[in-house]
Specification:
Elements lengths: L6 H11 L7 E5 L7 E7 L4 E6 L12 H10 L10 E5 L2 H4 L3 E5 L4 E2 L3 H4 L4 H19 L17 H16 L5 H12 L8 E3 L8 E4 L2 E5 L6 E3 L2 H9 L26 H12 L6 H24 L11 H19 L2
Antiparallel strand pairs: 1-2, 2-3, 3-5, 4-5, 6-8, 7-10, 8-9
Helix pairs in contact: 5-9, 6-10, 7-10, 7-11, 8-10, 10-11
Length: about 350
């Protein structure tokens, strides 16, 4: 029995919503799901689909909204932003105990770490990096009203809203004091730049949430943090995950940064492309990078607590101490950027 999946009920639901489904379905947890749980569903003909559901156990109110994530992917299906095809959303709790949705399985590499990134040929990496920025520009210039996402959330005061939201999460999941989190929050609040315009914001835009095949970008994944607001938050977050081999020398989490393999365009080149295509000024990008580190620390703390309490399933080899150290490291990075 696989935690999080009622095989009989989910299989019956799939047969009603996926016309191509053949015979019985085998389920497996896709490695790397640290928030919403992601499963592979394989039928007897070898056809694969992907199911997303919330974490097991208690989750924070309004978090892990499957309907919202499903809606966003549907809305972007005809845009220039590559997303998987959706098959349907289930909101009947009696089926699987929680909402879930099913989408197509997209073949390719998810560049979530250094080891996987080495599988991308060196002569393809620059192409992949430029495509990443191209897609981010496409997302940030997508007409939110035209695709039906104009009411997804408030457009203004994005940073203030995010600081409030993730401070609430931090307070709700805090297990140990981290002074750098409190000091970073103070500086982030006091030096907040003015938001200029608004766009669709992915919220977790990095190579680890993308599928690449033969040097081509196949799909952007994990839209659970998507909202409307300041697009520069996405840029700052991307740049935090865009380390060069030289920068990675003293990075304790080096293995999670795919760009450390080398061959990718640098931040300066990507910044120039972004500014030219969107017309946005990146003068204060270090603020946004610090904000992204701080937010990631708050998110990581929530993940750490859920794992410690067993809400993400059992994993005897999980390095809980390492996860907490990662939270502290992010908080320290945020403060360092704010004090430059």
């Amino acid at each position: 029995m696989l935690e999080g999946i009622n095989a009989a009920n989910v299989s019956a639901w799939l047969k009603d919503h996926v016309p191509e489904l053949v015979g019985e379905v085998r389920y497996s947890l896709i490695a790397g799901g640290h928030s919403n749980l992601t499963y592979q569903c394989e039928d007897e003909a070898g056809n694969c689909y992907v199911l997303r559901r919330p974490p097991l156990g208690h989750v924070l109110q309004s978090a892990h909204d499957m309907g919202r994530e499903h809606r966003i992917i549907d809305a972007l299906s005809d845009s220039n932003v590559p997303v998987p095809l959706n098959y349907g959303l289930c909101t009947a709790a009696e089926v699987n105990g929680a909402d879930f949705y099913v989408m197509e399985y997209v073949d390719g590499l998810v560049l979530g770490d250094y080891a996987t990134a080495t599988q991308v040929p060196e002569d393809k990496r620059r192409q992949v990096g430029l495509r990443v920025m191209d897609i981010l520009c496409d997302l940030h210039t997508t007409d939110m009203d035209a695709v039906g996402l104009g009411d997804l959330g408030r457009k203004e005061a994005y940073l203030a809203r995010q600081l409030k939201r993730w401070t609430k999460q931090w307070e709700a999941t805090k297990t140990d004091p981290i002074p750098e989190m409190e000091e970073s929050y103070r500086i982030l609040t006091e030096t907040m730049p003015e938001q200029v315009g608004a766009s669709i914001v992915h919220g977790d835009f990095r190579l680890g949430n993308m599928i690449v095949k033969d040097g081509s970008m196949q799909a952007i994944l994990d839209w659970e943090l998507c909202t409307l607001g300041d697009p520069l938050a996405d840029v700052g977050y991307l740049f935090n995950n865009w380390l060069t081999p030289e920068e990675a020398v003293n990075e304790p989490d080096r293995d999670i940064f795919p760009t450390c393999v080398g061959g990718y365009p640098g931040r300066d080149e990507l910044s120039a492309i972004y500014s030219e295509r969107t017309g946005r000024d990146l003068t204060h990008i270090n603020y946004y990078r610090a904000f992204s580190h701080w937010r990631l620390a708050a998110i990581g703390q929530g993940v750490f607590k859920r794992y410690r309490e067993g809400a993400m399933g059992s994993d005897k080899q999980l390095d809980l101490e390492g996860k907490f150290e990662s939270v502290m490291h992010r908080a320290e990075q945020a403060l360092a950027l704010l004090q430059r």
